[in-house]
Amino acid sequence: MRALTWHGKHDIRVEDVPRPEIVNPNDAIIEVTATAICGSDLHLYHGRVPSMREGDVLGHEPMGEVVEVGSGVETLDVGDRVVVPFTISCGSCWFCQNDLYSLCDNSNPNAELAREVMGHSPAGLYGYSHMMGGYAGGQAEYLRVPYADVGPVKIESDLSDEQVLFLSDIFPTGHMAAENADIDEHDTVAVWGCGPVGQFAVQSADMLGADRVVAIDRVPERLAMARDHGGAETINYEEEDVYDRLMELTGDRGPDSCIDAVGTDAHGTGVVATSDRVKQRLNLEDDRPTVLREAIRCCRKGGTLSVPGVYVGRADNFPMGPLMNKGITVKTGQTHVQRYLGPLLDQIESGNIDPSFVVTHDAPLEDGPELYETFNDKEDDCIKVVLRP
Fold it and tell me: 27-65 pLDDT, tens per residue?
């Protein structure tokens, strides 16, 4: 079958790879009908994520049709149309039983690798390094789905692929980010990053009752999308000082909640941002915490910082003193996607939100390498790429 494969920094290829097979009785195989490139795939593209191997199949935002099920699968049948969460979860461990699906104890076969780095292993992920399980990803014609009774959600309506595909990751991720922000009525929420996760964080903050949402980025078309589809006020950080503007908007109080939807590859301006880039190139730090520093500075005393943006390792000059002295609560983590599938599918089916608004590019899988480059360079107004295997 054809698949997008990783061959090192800035080297994505379309190749023939073996078609997946049933390995365990609880596996299913789906024929992928649509799959997306995620902003976190760019961390792989940049070579930031350790334990990738040449030839690894990428992708963790797939959907498709079930074409084969293992003997132990009870909830899926051949022919079912499903969206597959990026988190692989067993459904039976303590974490899954407590709806903490991204922290599953059993789905990462390479848990020792993760434990050495993090102390404990989170759940396995599709197409996201061997430390996270070494699972083949969904930017391919077919995908093996372990624990098939726990992850995939069946789509039984006539909604298009583009309307439901983002249940696999970015819609639940943006929603959990807003939920973690502890939003109350009359709150002001600031969202750093207007990529796809940031767009859904903006939308979800509004859905959860925020009085005011402020979106921060430097890319005009992304800021325009946050204004037009999310009703957000916007700040272009290359044109005005973010702290000064947020203080002006909030009467010097600061946003009640701040959401970092950027993560490790944050851009920025000034000496500190330049220093981060240099230290990252010299392997003196793994992450560029520009947004974390700024969000902690801007957040009101006693406010909340929610971090859905992906970080991979060590961040230098982290402002622990301001974080502690301002009494800021921090919530973060990979998304417990399975927790949100039903409620968010209901929101889509009821017409309260149409997630397809983020799609700017829809192309065959064969165009994947070129579109990784386009997405990375933010060219051609690229915000979200959907590929058709």
Answer: 999 999 999 999 999 999 999 899 999 999 999 999 999
196: left (phi over 0), alpha (psi -120 to 50) or beta: alpha
Contact predicate 60/91, CB 8 Å: no
- Tally DSSP H helices, then E strands, for the chain: 13, 18
State residue 33 phi and psi, 5-degree precision.
-100, -25
Residues 6+ apart with CB under 8 A from 120: 114
The predicted-structure confidence for 196-253, as pLDDT tens digits, reads as follows 999 999 999 999 999 999 999 999 999 999 999 999 999 999 999 999 999 999 999 9
Nearest to 61 by CA among 46, 40, 79, 81: 40
Beta bridge pairs of residue 222: none
Determine the average pLDDT of the residues in 337-364: 97
Instruction: With H, G, I as helix, E, B as strand and everything else as coil, classify residue 144.
Output: strand
User: What backbone torsions phi and psi does residue 287 show, to the nearest 5 degrees?
Assistant: -115, 150
Q: Given CA atoms 338, 342, 347, 351 in this order, what sign does their dihedral have?
A: positive
Condensed to tens digits (0 to 9), the pLDDT of residues 293-329 reads 999 999 999 999 999 998 988 888 889 999 999 999 9
Q: State the pTM of this model.
A: 0.94
- Both tokens of 59, joined, read 């992708």
DSSP 8-state secondary structure symbol assigned to residue 32:
E
Supply angle C-alpha 248, 252, 256, rounded to 5.
100
CB pairs under 8 A, 24+ apart, for 70-75? 70/22, 70/24, 70/25, 70/26, 70/27, 70/28, 70/148, 71/25, 72/24, 72/25, 72/26, 73/25, 73/26, 73/27, 73/28, 73/148, 73/149, 74/149, 75/148, 75/149
3-class secondary-structure state, position 16: strand
- The DSSP annotation for 171-200 comes to HHHHHHHHHHTT--TT-EEEEE--SHHHHH
User: Biggest alpha carbon distance in the chain?
Assistant: 62
- What residue type is 20 in one-letter code? P
Residue whose tokens read 């979106």: 215
**pLDDT tens profile 249-266:** 999 999 999 999 998 878
Q: How far apart are CA 22 and CA 44, in angstroms?
A: 27
Residue % of the chain over a pLDDT of 90 = 89
